[in-house]
Amino acid sequence: MAKRVAVIGGGTSGLTCIKCCLDEGLEPVCFETSDDIGGLWRFKENPDPDRASIYYSLIINTSKEMMCYSDFPIPAHFPNYMHNSLIMDYFRMYAEHFQLKRHIRFQTKVLHITPRPDFPHSGQWDVETESKDGRREKQVFDAVMVCTGHHCHPHLPLKDFPGIDTFKGKFFHSRDYKNPEDWRGKRVVVIGIGNSGGDIAVELSRMAKQVYLSTRKGSWILNRVGDKGVPFDMMFNNRALMWFLGLLPVGYSNKLGENQLNKRFNHKLYGLQPVHRVFSQHPMVNDDLPNRILSGTVSVKPNVQEFRQSSVVFEDGTVEDDIDLVVFATGYTFSFPFLSSHIIPVSKNKVSLYKYVYPPALERPTLAVIGLIQPLGAIMPISEMQARWATRVFKGLCKLPPMSAMMKDIKAKENEITQRFSTLHLT
Fold first, then answer.
1. CA-to-CA distance for 45 and 38, rounded, in angstroms?
2. The pairing of beta strand 284-285 with beta strand 221-222
3. Backbone phi, then psi, for 139, in 5-degree steps?
């Protein structure tokens, strides 16, 4: 009898998990809280609570050649960088081709996932769910794949912004931004210089009277379009270049990358020079921001010090009056509300997982976290590789090392990250 695997979430990672389970002769049951596949990539005018939501114009930052699943190429007539609606078209084709939707239970929320009393022997889990009509059900599964991602709860740190309660304009998190039409001729502050902050600032700058982009620490800006018009990620994410950069001292490889980015525009001159090195943090991908800064429609500002009714005071002492809108592009936090906190402890929005997949302390390796990563590149092929490995571990075809070895590996990776951040400042 085939082992039953619970897949939590029907987005980018959940779909490939279902496919990999079927490839290995496992029986997947996917639980999806919404009424459709696609997760983060499905545009909704009114987003579901406790999940990320995209804006109408969003285009992916990775090229189709680098983001497709290995056994289902994206159609040749699709553009290199796809609008979110085309990404959904691709997911639907993938799901239909491999007949994945028959394994998904839509509008079903996972309430609790708990190890069974005989877990040290069986590795099995009790999974309690609730359907849209309120009916609860408890089932036994041989393994669990958690595919809920890291864009769960909008992070809106209002306590860090004195006077926000006096602000007379409107403010909201970037998840609630959908299109720029309502803000024609207005004055806007966008807080945060991640990909969402950059995209929203650029788009609003074409409608608004003025956009101020507030950043605490700046960012390195990558182009989608690389040398000779080739997608940047196809040039950058290749073995030869990674091998070469790996041979160089970290400081020197950072300097090479920074010099290359500064050839297009001088980050310091544009007010975007970050304190961190280019390979130590996730960069922004945005082709248009330098043009909007140069045209004055986007003005780069330091962190917000305080709000005074309709005015915004920045840390450099400048004050901008008559602000109509503030968009907090301040990211997300994630959690696993259906799991006991000791199974996967989350601290400061981070988890300690072996190879970013396995909780090291479980007696049996029957729970895998898939897609909880922020790569410099596409998440789809990484989720697929993680899912392939996990399903083979579930079947006993691959074995994990002892807990001590897993902890040592996790610690080594944490130390490497700490070391990178200890040499953040430019030389």
1. 15
2. parallel
3. -130, 160
246 phi, psi to nearest 5 deg:
-65, -25
* Strand partners for 113: 127, 339
| Joined tokens for residue 234 | 């196809």
- Asked whether the whole model's pTM tops 0.85, one would answer yes
Q: CB under 8 Å to 20, separation ≥6 — which residues?
A: 384, 387, 388, 390, 391
Burial class (CB in 10 A: 0-12, 13-18, 19+), 117: exposed
Cα 311 to Cα 39: distance, rounded to the nearest angstrom: 37
Q: Is 374 exposed, middle or buried (0-12, 13-18, 19+ CB in 10 A)?
A: exposed
pLDDT-based confidence at residue 237 (cuts at 50, 70, 90): confident
Query: In this structure, what token pair is assigned to residue 256?
Result: 């090479």
pLDDT at 426: 42
Q: Tell me the C-alpha distance between 408 and 351, whole Å.
A: 15
Q: How far is CA 118 from CA 57, 199, 340, 363, in A?
A: 50, 50, 17, 11
Give the span between the Cα atoms of 80 and 68, in whole angstroms. Answer: 11
What single-letter DSSP state applies at residue 109? E
